Amino acid sequence: MQWESVHQGAQTAGDAQAAPAAPRQRLRRGEGGRRQLVTATASVAAAIPLMLGAAAIGRAHWGAVLVWAPLSMAMSLFAWAALQLGWTQRWRDPALTAPQVAWSIGSTAACYAMLGPLRGAALPMLALALLFGFFALPAATVRRLAAWTLAVYASTMLLMAHWQPGRYPPAEEVIHFSVLLLTVPVMALLATRMSELRARLGRQKSELEEALARIRELAACDELTGLHNRRRGTEALQVHRARALRHGGTFVVAMVDIDHFKAINDRHGHAGGDAVLRAFADIAGRSVRTGDTLARWGGEEFLVVYETEEPGAASAAAERLRRSASELVVELPDGSSTRLTVSVGLASWRSGEPVEVLIARADRALYRAKSEGRNRVVTD
Known about the structure:
Layout: H1 2-13, H2 21-45, H3 47-56, H4 62-84, H5 97-115, H6 122-134, H7 139-163, H8 170-219, H9 230-247, E1 252-258, H10 261-287, E2 293-298, E3 301-306, H11 311-326, E4 329-331, E5 337-339, E6 342-348, H12 355-371, E7 377-379
Parallel strand pairs: 6-7
Antiparallel strand pairs: 1-3, 1-6, 2-3, 4-5
């Protein structure tokens, strides 16, 4: 069908954009993953000087801090390695954001358990870990992490109040946990709404991209025949010329005109003329090859760009198109039928020649074909 040839023509015009979409998406995910990793690593690393300071003033045990520090960085280092080696490149979350947040929650809970009277400093660290992940993760994951946070801190506070009630008075732990019980679900709720907003914006963006793609398609499409319009035909010519300049070789242009089209319009009305145009567009679309471009140039004129370096091959293809048109019987809306013929003018691109000059030569050949009796192919 003509749509197959139209699609091939669009591929020709879009040659510079041949990169597959999936690798681009993976690349964007990889870049986003690296940004996530930088943020996560920085937020974890920021806690280490604080813990070293607490150990220096005797508020935390040196041995415990020196064990905690590398363990707190372990997940970030693993995520870095996994992303660099490409293990997670195809994943939706290549930075392993959820595992990192879960690990950071446990790491801050360990800080809470080590700091004693300074344990309140662990809560801002927890908030930093939650903010890093909550507003970048799906709502269901956020809810699971919120539950994990409350469970880990409830366990830590209960154990420390039981083991060291002097440093972790039970009444104070109840107050601390009450603060978490108020703030963590609220943060999760806000993050959930943000996630829903992102999802809605993503859907709207996708719908907008689809609408824009449809607009671009319509802008490049002839409404009556479904072929490329003159604008897209001109773009295809420029692409073929640029490719020929870059790689050498040539290509051939055919200007095709339906003979006596005005008489068909006069005899059968515009509806009859439209039926003839659609019938010819259909047969022409089925005759062009992969890589060739077919466009409606205007009125009853059509443009074919043959992607071949052999003028003889293009001439044979144009002759097949002329013969197919002459064998076509078009059924018209008024119940009658008509036959048609076409005249074709061919011109091969000459090195360095502007597109306008090439079209003018093909037009000149078409004029000769019509003046010599129509229903023929003439080469400039």
